[in-house]
Specification:
single chain; Farnesyl Diphosphate Synthase; 2 strands; globular; binds geranylgeranyl diphosphate
């Protein structure tokens, strides 16, 4: 299977589900809904939802059960990008090659669009269409908690806080690792974790794919740092960062062994993350 074709097909499916989840632009207050849609449909790669669906597939699960969580992870990711771009954070004018939300609309609207996307993520997680029975419902409720943990103060928001506190200071490697595993890594790791869990995976399968997700999440951030000559790559140097990335890829692929042929897609996605150019 050609991985690029697979990724494009999955992204299309996720975009369709996101379109059905997001409010229509014509709904009042229009400007809020326009800002939410403007940011979500500005060309993201859909990495996190693709991981959710691929992990579900690896455990032989029904994709329908994981699709609401896939959308939720992408909505949370987009809220984080909108807030990250605000003047009080990174103060960026461009995101994905187009105006950031607060530049296209205004700061107040961007702040609220981010808030609304985060809230909508949890509404999406409560969707009942993927639920077949009480056991599915139990898994769905547990997944809400896992995603909240990954997105919140012990996850992405915590990582962002430490990143902010570290600005302009010399930071040590453990702090960089904390930032990487929390700010970016937590959402990616929870993607494979809940994908496997909602797909009906056994505890061993879920834990294994969670470890895979942690390795790939770190790999994703290190590759990003190498491209931008920032964070980990600037602390240890590009050759060392590249070596670490390759070692993470091996560790991630090692975790997939128990899945045999069913782990092939996840292995190809990990290769793609290492070799990506944007
Ligand atoms: C403001 C609460 C809050 C959190 C912000 C994730 C994050 C925390 C900030 C993003 C900053 C950043 C550019 C990190 C580098 C790695 C990264 C997460 C890149 C963006 O993710 P992609 O490549 O983006 O998946 P697309 O555009 O494809 O969706």
């Amino acid at each position: 299977m050609n991985i690029e074709i697979y990724l494009a097909k999955q992204a299309k499916k996720i975009n369709k589900a996101l379109d059905g989840t997001l409010p229509k632009e014509s709904e009042w207050p229009q400007v809020l809904h326009q800002a939410m849609r403007y940011s979500v449909f500005s060309g993201g790669k859909r990495v996190r939802p693709i991981f959710v669906l691929a992990a579900c597939e690896a455990v032989g699960g029904n994709e329908k059960k994981a699709l609401p969580a896939a959308c939720a992870l992408e909505l949370i990711h987009n809220y984080s990008l909108i807030h990250d771009d605000l003047p009080c954070m990174d103060d960026d004018d461009l995101r994905r090659g187009q105006k950031t939300c607060h530049k296209q609309f205004n700061e107040e609207t961007a702040l609220l669009a981010g808030d609304a996307l985060l809230t909508l993520a949890f509404k999406a997680l409560s969707a009942s269409d993927g639920v077949g029975n009480v056991k599915d419902l139990e898994r769905q409720i547990t997944a809400v908690g896992l995603i909240a943990d990954a997105a919140g103060h012990r996850g992405m928001v915590g990582g962002q806080m430490v990143d902010l506190e570290s600005q302009g200071k010399e930071i040590n490697l453990p702090t960089i690792e904390y930032i990487n595993t929390h700010k970016t890594g937590a959402l990616i790791a929870v993607s494979t974790r809940v994908g496997a869990y909602l797909g009906g995976g056994t505890p061993r399968q879920v834990e294994t794919l969670y470890r895979y997700g942690k390795y790939v999440g770190l790999l994703f951030q290190i590759v990003d740092d190498i491209m931008d000559r920032e964070g980990y790559a600037s602390a240890v140097g590009v050759p060392e960062a590249r070596k670490e990335a390759e070692s993470l890829l091996l560790k991630a692929n090692h975790e997939l062994k128990i899945f045999g042929a069913k782990g092939k897609v996840l292995s190809q996605i990990a290769d793609f993350v290492l070799n990506r150019r944007h």
